[in-house]
């Protein structure tokens, strides 16, 4: 993503060629001084109210004892944050259990979501009859919403009526695995479903990256006698580095924000072991009306993710040197 | 040798396709079964008999007005898409083509929020929506999502890739900025606008977390939010639940088949080229 911004900023800020500048000045003189702001205004209103203000407002809420149902919202400083860190507070156990659940899911799902789609993209990265069809088929689950795939997989993974256990039974494997009600199966289910659902998305991003690698590089490697594995290691992987970083970063963010799969498929089971951070935040804030505490969780969680992203960038930068 | 390799390649591709497609086919087939048929062990692949039991149950349902949810979702996704197209394209024009004080700052702020997990804003956005009296209305599932930076960023990159010559010709003919924008730039940007429209529609149609927590009245729900209720009400009556899931899937699957190129292009652009 850093590359995206650098490219964008460079384009936006670079002084235009002299001719362009002169002509553009002429064009601007025709418009009123307010014209640019009028073009921006409709979006900026939306962005200000629902994109920018909530960032500051969220921090503000987190510093208050903010019950959605009570008119009085006293300022309590870092009280909500202290609760999240002190083991004698009522929320401590629930909060860290949700952090643990989210960490488990992220650590298990991200490697698969980075590697499996790369394999798919490599399979599709040359032209052959039917290529568009296969690409669409791999991508298709992603256009279904999480509500649909959640209901569908709750059914498929049903211990008694589900297709998964019945197919396993038909080939002589155990047919009574509690896929959605016990660990570790619940984790296998959540990760497996998420890979099935979203790996086509990452595959499409990889495909675009693969097509940007110049064919001459592969030719040169072939001339030098490199075999398929050598070409993958020395041409494909280095060529994909920015795409890999992008996929890794966005996938970590997406996995850490998992909600619908756990909400619909395992429904938190067993106990509350698969109840994730986002789920805990919205329940705390919007079901139990403790918006202050939920906002503190959101801020803390955003900071945790920021640290992960920064570490991620650092690691990749270093490897590049 | 090569024909053998080609054979293996197609076999692998077909196997993977089966993994992706079978669950969706199973959803369709189950939605056409009777309750008893869906309980059979071992399961029958094809419905026996073909039945509209599941669809009848969701159509004549006053406790769970599924068709109403469908209409709500259609309205919300359509209005959301229009709102995104209008606001994002105007803002992108200003950011790509006009010079003004604060351009850099506003672009940096907009792009900066792309890195923010949207879930981290849910609590403050709920409080804001409540102050606006939008909770449990159609507006609350149409408007706030349009603050996303993606559309502006995506269209700005596209506008920058269009050569200025055509616009300059229009300016020489006396066109003002609004005319340049609506008569020159927008017609040239049809593919990008179509891509953004399809992606916005999909995103809004599939949105789950936000509607579940901001809509309450049964007749106000969107389809994804309602499906959660359907699961609670019908537990293991899978033909009914799968019929509901089909209703939520068919429009987006049709849209995907018709606009596949746009969806795929939009996603691959979101990667590197912006």
Fold and architecture overview:
- Chain A is an all-alpha fold and 321 residues long.
- Chain A has a single domain (92-320), classed as Orthogonal Bundle (MetI-like fold).
- Helices cover 74% and strands 0% of the residues of chain A.
- Chain A contains 14 helices and no strands.
- The radius of gyration of chain A is 25 Å and the shape is globular.
- Mean pLDDT of chain A is 88; it is low at 1-29.
- With 274 residues, chain B is an all-alpha fold.
- Chain B has one domain (32-271): MetI-like fold (Orthogonal Bundle), CATH 1.10.3720.10.
- Chain B has helices at residues 2-31, 35-39, 53-59, 66-97, 103-112, 122-131, 139-142, 150-160, 165-172, 177-188, 190-206, 209-214, 223-234, 238-258, 260-271.
- In chain B, helix 1 packs across helix 14 and helix 4 packs across helix 8 (150-160).
- Chain B is globular.
- The two termini of chain B are 41 Å apart.
- At the A-B interface, helix 1, helix 2, helix 3, helix 6 and helix 7 of A face helix 1, helix 4, helix 5, helix 6 and helix 8 of B.
- Chain A: It is found in: Cell membrane.
